[in-house]
Design brief:
alpha/beta; FAD/NAD(P)-binding domain; 2 domains; 7-stranded mixed beta sheet; 20 strands; about 30% helix; FAD/NAD-bd_sf; FAD binding; EC 1.4.3.3
Amino acid sequence: MKIGIAGAGIVGRLSALLLQQRGHQVTLFDRDGIDNGSACSYTAAGMLTPVSESDVYEPLVYALGQRSLRRWPELVQQINGEVFYHTGGSLVVAHRQDQADYHRFLQAVESNAQPTAEQMTMLDQAQLAELEPELAARFHRAAYMPGEAWLCPCCVMPTLGDQLVAAKVPFHTYSEIAAVTGNEVGGEIVVAGRSGERRHAFDCVIDSRGLGAREALPALRGVRGEIIWVRAPGVKIDRLVRLMHPRYRIYIVPRRDDLYLIGATQIESEDRSEISVRSSLELLSAAYSVHPGFAEARVIKTDVNLRPALPDNQPKIFSAGKVLRVNGLFRHGYMMAPAICDELVARIEQGEGYQSDFAELFTQDKPYAGA
């Protein structure tokens, strides 16, 4: 089957890989290059943490996250390159003044996720010291999610791009996609150019452009997120750490070479300008409160991007003829991408009769204006 994919973020690239491996003729279109760009898939933290984030999840997001958490190890083996996939688990901690929020967080996780002992366990200070000695001085307990993981989006994206190109998948970079259209027979990706529009016809089309798909999904909104990269040789933390915070769930993600990613704000704004002073102070002071070694860390860079969200903050696959529009992954792109891409592949191959385990992910209706 000839399949066109508009938008080469994590969903576009991973879908292309899975479809190509199954013998389909896949063509990718994206406004950016292969190894860099403005997609929010580059600005993500790459956290695969369905349990520790379940305090604010809807059941669909949690179910997709759990399925994807089980799927990522197999996919990592299929990706021809280093993506710095880590399986050390995650820790959630809180200072004494935030214990009330911490208690509410634990209650919400227990209610929403109903985790088993293998999925979440409470550590006392001595147990925390065994896992992360440098955290035990400031925290007397922690929630530990041993099965959670993370990877490096800045490695995943170019590695997938290079693998697709090596597999002879046509990859049309720097393409201004004007529209994605279709009917019961096939779909088209319309690319704008200096000499006019060019239409590319396919048996089926996946529209995974995020906020770029607003002409089809005008109810989409962008939610601003800011992150800071620091190099901190005086810090030795091996696991993903979340900190209760009055405004955000601050996280610290270890990278290689003493690098740590600190994030992330969640602001209802579509401002793409540089990180604010307020956010910088909040993120960096939170990191310092976790470990004093961050005081001498060096700020390497800051990133700002907009995450695509639908009104209910849940992902959707809108099915209309031979066009599948996947959008609204919000803050959880990497956490849900494998399960969503598997669903796209199954829906393409089995058609409208496909019976999904995630029925609420699909819709043929138009619940949002213009969708």
